[in-house]
Structures are given as C-alpha cells and as structure tokens.
Amino acid sequence: MYTFGWCSEIQQAEKLKDLGFDYIECALVSLNLENETEYAARLPLFMNSPLPVRAFNIFFPGDLKVVGPEVDQERLQRYIHKAAKALNQVGAKNVVLGSGRSRNIPEGWERNRSEEQFMQLLSCIGEEFAGTGVTLVIEPLNKKETNLINSVSEAVRFAKQVNHPSVRVLADFYHMDEEKESLQTLIDNKAWLQHIHLADTGRFSPGTGQYPYEQFVTALKASGYEGMISAECTVRDPETDQRDSLAFMKRVFAY
C-alpha cells in the first residue's frame, strides 16, 4: 500500500489535505531546533497539522558540518538529541538525511576520515532514534550537490555497516536519473528501501516530463516496496501541479 505526500512548508498542509494527499513532508530545519524560543513557537504547528507530518527532510542546517575538520561533536549531539525528541512528538515515521552541504568532503580532507565521521554520525542517530518510531533514511545525492554518497548502493553500504534498525535508505528518482543509476538497484537493495522521492524532467512535478515512470514503478514493485512516496520538486503552478501530480502518481502506481 503506497501513501503519497508532498514536500512543502507546514503552512501548505491544509491545502494539500484538501487536494487528497496522505501526508506532508517538511524540512526539519524549519523547526529551528537550536533556537529554544522559535522552536517552542514552531513545534505546535507540526503537532497540530491538519495533514500528518509523516516525513521530514533537510536534516541539518548548512553550517552544521558532519564531516571534515569543522565538525563540532557536542553541537551535533545536542542537535540530534533534540531532533529525535521533536520527530517523536510530531509523529514522524521517516526523516531524510540529504544535507549535501553538511556532508560534503572539504578539499584536502581524506575520504576515509570522512567516511568514518559519517559512520559515527549514523551510529549516533541510530542510538538516539531507538524506541522513537522514527527511521533515518540516507539520501543519495547527485555529484553536483555532494561528493559523499551519490548512489543507492553507496547509501546501502553505509546502512549495512552501521547495521541499526533505525537507519535505512531512500531512493530519489531525480538523483538516480542525474547519476544515470540503473533502476535494477531498487531490486538489488530492496531490503534497505524505506522512503521514495519523486520528480520529473528538470526536477519539476511528477508527470510533467519524460522520466521513465513505467520502468521505475515496475522495478519498485518488483522490490516489494510498500510505503511512503513523496514528490520533491519545483512547482510552476502549485495547485494545478499538485493536483495533477497526485492523480498521475495514483494512476502510474495503480493506487
């Protein structure tokens, strides 16, 4: 059973509910976790949302580095602890670790050291998320956005190494297309898939371009995936695009 969501600001929840979406996916950074006053003011918007906030993305603010010489371990630990509590309170199921700026390996910094730092990060998040009902999903990003983890198989390699039930992997059709990643990877890594992001040509709304959706759906169904599918894209005409894309997604996934 698939459920369909849209990546947007919390203020759009009512409209997305009226359009027929199952949930909304918001940016975790929009909670302003490191500012107690703003966080206290923002949290009720998510907890009382008319449409469930079942997923979050944009885990870290860009200045909070997770690899490289500027890693502030104490700040990271505080942030992750607050995130785990907030996600649990809101009732989120998945939170996406994309954050390309945060995880980009700086020039001159060894890849091996970066991978070790990222593994420590995943272990820390896994421990904090234990018992919360929230799963971290590692998002592979194309090489224009980061130089660490650019494919589903790479993300799975990290998830396997950390080997924690709260750490899984996301497949994003846009990033897969940018990297020319084979759709077979959805089947090969089926045990690790926890969340899906969709877009179409030019990173616009699903159904507006030439992405091979029939092949993508065939591979995803062959993987046995059942769960949340979020559109994460640029929108030209919000109401029309969102309504038409939801109809397209339901049709192409034979909802």
From TrEMBL:
GO MF annotation, one: isomerase activity
Superkingdom of this protein's organism: Bacteria
Signal peptide: none
Domain Xylose isomerase-like TIM barrel: 14-251
UniProt-listed InterPro entries: Sugar_Epim/Isomerase (IPR050417), Xyl_isomerase-like_sf (IPR036237), Xyl_isomerase-like_TIM-brl (IPR013022)
KW Cytoplasm (keyword) present: no
Assigned keywords, A-Z: Isomerase
Classification via Pfam families: AP_endonuc_2
Keyword Isomerase: yes
Gene3D superfamilies (UniProt xref): Divalent-metal-dependent TIM barrel enzymes
Coiled coil: none
Protein name: Sugar phosphate isomerase/epimerase family protein
